[in-house]
Amino acid sequence: VATVGVLALQGAFSEHIQLLRQAAECLRTQNTHHHHLNWTFIEVKTPAELVTCDALILPGGESTAISLVAERSGMLEPLRNFVKVLRKPTWGTCAGLILLAEAANRTKKGGQDLIGGLDVRVNRNHFGRQTESFQANLPLPFLGDSGVDQPFRCVFIRAPVVEKILPHRTGIQTEEACSNDTIVAPSKTPVDELAKEELNADVEVMAKISTRSPALKDNEEHDHPGKEDIIAVRQGNVFGTSFHPELTEDPRIHVWWLEEVVKAVEKRQQFELADRSK
Ligand code: GLN
C-alpha cells in the first residue's frame, strides 16, 4: 500500500485526488508490474496526516495563501522536512511549483515563505496581463511516445516559469540571497544516504514553451522568435509544472508520476532492508 497526499489548505486539491484515482485505475488495467499496488489518496491538512504519506502533491491556487495557512497551521516546517530532509516524492503544480522553488521573485504584494527543494528561481505571474490564462497543446517527451504523438492540453493560469537553474544550494546563499527582490527558501540537510543522493541530483528540464516576452506591452504582438520558457522540471524527488494537469481530464502525467512514486518507494524499501542487515 502506498499513501499519496494532496496538500489541502487552499487551491485545486480535490481535482488532483480525482485524477490520481483515475491514474491508479489506468495503472491497474495496464498490467504493469505494479498493478498489484494499492493506493490510498488523502487530503493533507495537518502534520499528523503528512507523516502517513509516501508522496505528496502541492496543488495550484495562490502560493501566498497556501504558504500563510501552512505557517499558521504549523505545516511549513513539516513540509520542508518531507521534501528536503526525508526527500520523499513531491510534485507541485503552478502555485505548488512556486513553493517548491529555492528562490522566487517578490511581487507587488510581497512574498511568501518557500518550502524549496528545486534549485531553481521562478518568476511568478510570468505571462503578464494579456495572457494571464491560456491553454496550449504541447508535446511532453517525458511521457514517452504518447506524449509526443498526442500533445498535452496545458492549462496556464497566472502561471510561473522557471527563469533560472541555480547552482546547487551553496550558490543560492551568495548570489540570490543578497538581492532584495528575491525570496529564498531556508536550507535543510537530508540525514540518510539515500536522501543525500536525491539532493545531489541535477535539475532536469522536462518541458518548455515558446512564448512572447513578458516585457512586451499588451498591444504588442511579436514574440522573440525562438525564445522558450521552462515549464516543467525535476530534481531527484521533486517535480514541478507551471501548468495544471488537474484541471484537465487527461491522467497521463499523474500516471507517469505515480510510476515514479512506485520506483522511489521500492528504492527506499530496499535501502532500509540493506541498512537493517548491516
Ligand atoms: N499566480 C499564482 C501564485 O503566485 C499561481 C497561480 C496558480 O496556481 N494558478 O501563487
UniProtKB/TrEMBL annotation:
BP GO terms, sorted: pyridoxal phosphate biosynthetic process; pyridoxine metabolic process
Catalytic activity, reaction form: L-glutamine + H2O = L-glutamate + NH4(+)
SUPFAM superfamilies xref list: Class I glutamine amidotransferase-like
PROSITE patterns assigned to the protein according to its UniProt record, in alphabetical order: GATASE_TYPE_1, PDXT_SNO_1, PDXT_SNO_2
UniProt KW Zinc keyword: no
Pfam families tied to this protein: SNO
GO molecular function terms noted in the UniProt entry: glutaminase activity; lyase activity; transferase activity
UniProt keywords, alphabetically: Glutamine amidotransferase, Hydrolase, Lyase, Transferase
Gene3D superfamilies named among the record's database cross-references: 3.40.50.880
EC number(s) stated in the UniProt entry for this protein: 3.5.1.2
InterPro entries named in the record: Class_I_gatase-like, PdxT/SNO, PdxT/SNO_CS
GO CC annotations on file: cytosol; glutaminase complex
Record flagged with keyword Transferase: yes
Similarity comment: Belongs to the glutaminase PdxT/SNO family.
Cited PANTHER family: PYRIDOXAL 5'-PHOSPHATE SYNTHASE SUBUNIT SNO (PTHR31559), PYRIDOXAL 5'-PHOSPHATE SYNTHASE SUBUNIT SNO1-RELATED (PTHR31559:SF0)
Name used for this protein in its record: glutaminase
Protein source organism: Pleomassaria siparia CBS 279.74
